[in-house]
Amino acid sequence: MSWLDEHPEIRNVRCGAADLNGQARGKRVPVKFARKIEEEGTRFPLSVLNLDIWGEDVEDSPLVFEIGDPDGVLRPTERGYVPMPWLAMPSALLPLWMYTEEGAPFEGDPRQALATVLNRYTARGLTPVVATEMEFYLVDDSGKEIRQPKSPRSGKRRMGADILSLRALDAFDMFFNDLYDACDEMDIPAEAAISEVGLGQFEINLVHVPDALKAADDAWLFKMLVRGLARKHGMAASFMAKPYEDFAGSGLHTHFSVQDAAGANIFANGTHEGTTMLHQAIAGCLRAIPDLALIFAPHANSYDRLVPEAHAPTGICWAYDNRTASIRVPGGSLAARRVEHRVAGGDVNPYLFLAAVLGSALIGIEDAMTPPPPIVGNAYEQDLVQIPATWAEAIDTFEHSTLARRIFPELLINNFVMTKRQELHYMAELSPSQQIELYLDTV
Q: Domain extents for the chain?
């Protein structure tokens, strides 16, 4: 019996894949036609996974006129159907990923890029165990300027930051109740929710899973869910890197360890320092940050977050249990030694992000890299190599990086660079308020 047979309440189905910006591109189909997609897949132009942030073709893309804008074949991922609890009618999403007409994985598909990295781990008998931390803002965007929404309980707006405030969580209790119920329906392993630094800012941790494709799916679906459910509650939700100039930006951090074939954590040896492989993975991550900054900060607004003393890293360094560092080894159980990568904003594509992080860690292990000594104290006050501070610099560095080509296919790199250059050009025509309007519901 198929999932749809077990859920006769479903009225319609969306089928879609993530483009390079993490946007869901796809079709809405009546339930009676969905089974055909399950069995045979469906077809989109290859260029659909390479649109800019406005959903427009990328000018001069070789996927469009140069080769006649041919189709790719999209097939369901192993995830299967996922409910869409934010919609009024019972609906389901069937996640897809793209293949060529000949049946090969399409190299411009971000989910396929992550799968390729994971295949390299598998070839070494290794399995990454991955969790994500999802930061976002709840927003009232009904006026000329965005602001924190009124509490459904009190009708008042929170006037100041309330870090780890239960009162701030309780103010939106119905939203969070619905969100956790929806996560259960969608098989998204949502754990603790906290109130964060900014006005109306929250974080929800997604539990570690030994399947990085599922972790990326979970993050992609979670962003879709939070934005949709907030609208159902009369608000907006945004994963923009920096929606407010005067408040902290939103990050998407990942914690990861790596298991060997016996299920042992190769980063843990019962000591505070951890294993040589832990240090090699850290060294790979540090080495890759400048080259992959465009993955971690893909939009114009992303660079407003990467400023000193704003709860986002700016210097390239690592440390034990120090949140000013770009790479952190958290405290806690020595058996759970892991890496926290803190550079990315909430606006990233989760598939490209995890491919970048896990790919750079694997390069560190493959090349037996050695990291510099861990820092102690405030990273913002130390003389460190800095993360690229501008979008243009990040685009240029990614385009010419040999390291990026050890992680991502040439086609994806070229497509992503063309996309970002087009966005860079047209973004200059937008005012700050127009940029917020563009990014608020999009990223």
A: 3-105, 117-440
CATH architecture designation of domain 3-105: Roll (3.10)
CB 102 within 8 A of CB 72: no
Angle of helix 212-232 versus helix 110-123 axis, rounded to 10: 150
CB 282 within 8 A of CB 338: no
How would you write 176-202 as a 3-class SS string? HHHHHHHHHHHCCCEEEEEECCCCCEE
Is residue 229 a contact partner of residue 175, using CB atoms and an 8 Å limit?
yes
Structure tokens at 229: 């459910």
The structure tokens 């799916």 sit at 217
Per-residue pLDDT reduced to its tens digit, 155-212? 778 776 677 678 788 889 999 999 999 999 999 999 999 888 888 999 999 999 999 9
**Do 240 and 440 meet the contact criterion of CB atoms below 8 Å apart?**
yes
Provide the total of helices (H) and of strands (E) in the chain, helices listed first.
13, 14
For residues 223-243, average pLDDT: 97
Check if the beta carbon of residue 332 is closer than 8 Å to that of residue 286. no
Convert the pLDDT of each residue in 286-325 to its tens digit: 999 999 999 999 999 999 999 988 889 999 999 999 999 9
User: Which one, of 328, 331, 323, 315, lies nearest residue 281 by Cα?
Assistant: 328
If you compute the radius of gyration of the chain from its CA atoms, what whole number of angstroms results? Answer: 21
Return the CATH architecture of domain 117-440: 2-Layer Sandwich (3.30)
Domains 3-105 and 117-440 share a fold: no
DSSP string covering 309-364, please?
A: TSSS--B--EEES-TTSSEEE--S-GGG--EEE---BTTS-HHHHHHHHHHHHHHH
Whether 135 and 247 have beta carbons less than 8 Å apart is answered as no
Is the sign of the CA dihedral 352, 355, 361, 367 positive or negative? negative
279 has pLDDT over 70: yes
Closest CA to 297 of 380, 420, 413, 135: 420
Interior/surface letters 235-257, b for 16+ CB within 10 angstroms, e for the rest: bbbbbbbbbbeebbbbbbbbbbb
d(CA 20, CA 298): 10
What is the four-CA torsion angle of 269, 275, 277, 281, rounded to 10 degrees? 110
Q: How many CA atoms lie within 13 A of 413 on its CB side?
A: 20
